[in-house]
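User: Can you model how FE2/S2 (inorganic) cluster sits in this protein?
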Amino acid sequence: MAREIITLTVNGDTREILVSDRQTLLDVIRDQLSLTGTKRGCTTGACGVCTVNNAQGEAVLSCLTPALEWDGESIVTIEGLEQNGELDAIQTAFIEYGAVQCGFCTPGVIMSAKAVINAHPEPTEEQINAGMAGVLCRCTGHIKVKDALRNDHLIRARSET
Ligand code: FES
Ligand code: FES
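Assistant: Here's the modeled complex, given as structure tokens:
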């Protein structure tokens, strides 16, 4: 088993981390950095609960990607959305529209939603559907999540920046 030190910026904090060629990005996030907001579910790319955002603001399934490939990269996890005690606008929208579901799927749902907004500040129905397709939870449906992604709170937040 090969081991290597990688430099990874997580939620703005740059760290040097010893990883093995058997570890995924998810293993590092949860087991070495103790950022347990990102969940471990199927570990096969099917459920979306391990979703984080990469430096481009895109959704990444952290269970599928080897940790060694992240040397020099940066990611944002659910813990990094809040800034200086202020929730991100997408988190506020989820609360306002009742889109928060169980604690297991919600972090991945929010990080997927954040990636949708990063790519499409005013997403169409198709863009929302495509961006949220990787989230497996069907317990309560996606209606409230879609409401949050379309909501006027996000539009207000954008107009204030
Ligand atoms: S744990 Fe990564 S997709 Fe299910
Ligand atoms: S898995 Fe979270 S509400 Fe269904």
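A couple of observations from the model: The beta strands are 3-10, 13-20, 51-54, 59-61, 73-76. The domain at 89-160 is CATH 1.10.150.120 (DNA polymerase; domain 1).
User: Helpful, thanks.
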